[in-house]
């Protein structure tokens, strides 16, 4: 697989997901210029309280080049961004030794939206991050009902109402006693992550931590 990856890198050189310039080092998640200029969230600035969780961390603020990159990843089919995004999220977790997960999971799309998009962006992020962290990644939740996109809702109250009861434990999944790391692309109000965490705790999970690529401020 590594030989294949190197061959693909020669044919299709990896690009920085934020400025789309070819990376000097194919294994790096971002280019040197973006490493300096992106809106990094350092220390406590990258932490958010999310109901039913021990906390949520994010390496970047949501806006500008970060927002544009996330939109290309989610809506323009650029699945390759999952790897660099996952590496940044993994580093965010590694910088916080209090996060000691047993398994990585994600906030899933509904069947309808996954069919439209062709992939679940949260799943790809979770799997890329888990590979770097040397942890198992597993589906634990299912979207029990199709909801409006959270990004189209203006208030935190509307987001919470939209997410309420939207998730259920996947049939046959056992999370009792496990420390779960829940991944998503962006946290705004935290409503989606909160509802997912509540479902996991009700199923017996010992604790839930969250990590996202970026953090937006709720309106």
TrEMBL record:
- Double zinc ribbon domain segment(s): 7-41
Protein family: Belongs to the ComF/GntX family.
Q: What is this protein called?
A: ComF family protein
**Gene3D superfamilies reported for this sequence:** 3.40.50.2020
What the entry lists under PANTHER family is as follows: DNA UTILIZATION PROTEIN YHGH (PTHR47505)
The Phosphoribosyltransferase domain covers 122-215
